[in-house]
Predict the 3D structure of the following.
Amino acid sequence: MKFLLTSGGINNKSILDALVDMLGKPIADSNALCIPTAMYGHPWVGPGVKAWEFISGKEENPMVSLGWKSVGVLELTALPSIDENRWKPLLQETDVLLVSGGDALYLNHWMRQSGLADLVLSLNSVYVGMSAGSMVMGPNIGEYFVGWTPPNGDDETLGLVDFSIFPHLNHEMLPGNTSAAAERWAAGMPGPAYAIDDHTAIKVIDGEVEVVSEGHWKLFSP
């Protein structure tokens, strides 16, 4: 599994070029599965019209609408109730997973409950996250981003990369996501942490981390 962890989707040429390079073939020749689950846990984006817009490729932040050969939906909340043989082959055949934003802890919960968390590292595909879809890959998200409260009550996430992410840095619609807020957030994180804006992504291949950006970002080291 290769990771392309974005704040705002594939919304500039640098991030798009990085994605195509990771795929190793054109987007038009690649099959995708979109995962909208995180949206349902966040009051701003789901359920309802925003989830439909993401799945249908009418999303504000480009992911599903990039011109894939095919796009399917993998809804994690449904997976525990159906036979694994009905969805695991889809994962093994897909070229890319497109994971929406929303609530990172809700997504973490259902990635674990569905069994997807146990399979991610064995997949020969590209994982593209947006916002919460990126944050869930780190070891934890920090109290600042806790919304939906998981059964264990903490902010722990999957830890498939060794850094945490503060998305939407200095976003005009999120006045609280300032550089100063990111610095305070990072001070409470136990490991490396990146603050990234919507024109920045973090590329991870075999543990090697590269920032792809046409915007602003900052690495905070413990």
The longest strand covers residues 200-205.
